[in-house]
Write a structure and sequence with these properties.
The chain has 248 residues and is α/β, with parallel strands linked by helices. The protein is built from nine helices and twelve strands. It is 40% helix and 20% strand. Bound molecules: calcium ion.
Length: 248
């Protein structure tokens, strides 16, 4: 049972049963010195079913990361005691492949590249929606230690993520950046019904309760390009719930 917050909406809302089963009992270490963010993460991840340990200092986080066993570490960059970069470097130097999701207040290409080159599995720029964090966590856990595939395939649909290219049956499809982001989100989580709210949060960075009609409009445009010209339909509407990309 998920508890509801005062707003009537649990932090962990929007995740499905399959995900709950998958993550139950998995251990996450959160290293974050900002009290509010740390509490929010702790609450949301615990509600979702993870076993969560938390550290507020970098040196304490590193100690835990080296002595305990975690499925994932959520790591802030700027920390007292020892920064996130040093923690990641020390972990990898010790041969620990534990996946790391960086939280960064800075959204600069240099920081991103630095983190990824050092062996972080993903990064998230603050402030972020919990659903976004959960999507990243889930994606990292699903692929395990190592890199995410750069080309996603579903039936005859190919999505080349780094090149922002989409094709069906080898035929290139021209998409706007938002359409590509929308399709990529659906493809990464294919088989899973995504709510309009979740899509709006992740593709448009809009908050809950904003006008999610924008999602329906974008889906219609995407469908016209990706599905209409082809006999096999991949993008489906689940009435009253949302959208799913899958082979039927
Ligand atoms: Ca910090």
């Amino acid at each position: 049972m998920r508890r509801k917050s005062q707003t009537g909406r649990s932090v962990a809302d929007g995740i499905n049963f399959r995900l709950l089963v998958m993550i139950t009992g998995m251990r996450i270490l959160v290293v974050e010195d900002e009290r509010k963010t740390a509490d929010y993460l702790h609450k949301g991840l615990s509600e979702t079913g993870f076993v969560v340990d938390a550290a507020q200092r970098g040196d304490d986080g590193l100690h835990l990361a080296l002595t305990e066993s975690y499925d994932l570490i959520v790591l802030d960059v700027m920390l007292p005691g020892c920064d996130g970069w040093s923690i990641l470097a020390a972990l990898r130097a010790a041969g620990r492949p534990t996946p790391v999701l960086f939280l960064t207040a800075r959204d600069t290409v240099t920081d991103r590249v630095k983190g990824l080159e050092m062996g972080a599995d993903d990064y998230l720029v603050k402030p972020f929606a919990f659903s976004e964090l959960l999507a990243r966590v889930r994606s990292i856990l699903r692929r395990g230690p190592g890199r995410q595939p750069e080309v996603l395939q579903l039936a005859d649909l190919d999505l080349d993520l780094p090149r922002h290219r989409a094709a069906r049956a080898g035929q290139r499809i021209d998409l706007t950046p938002k359409e590509f982001a929308l399709l990529a989100l659906l493809a990464k989580r294919h088989g899973e019904v995504l709510s309009r709210t979740l899509i709006a949060e992740q593709v448009w960075e809009m908050n809950f309760d904003s006008d999610t009609n924008v999602v329906d409009v974008a889906i219609r445009r995407l469908r016209a390009k990706v599905d209409d010209p082809f006999p096999r339909k991949l993008l489906h509407t689940v009435r009253g719930v949302g959208y799913v990309l899958e082979e039927r």
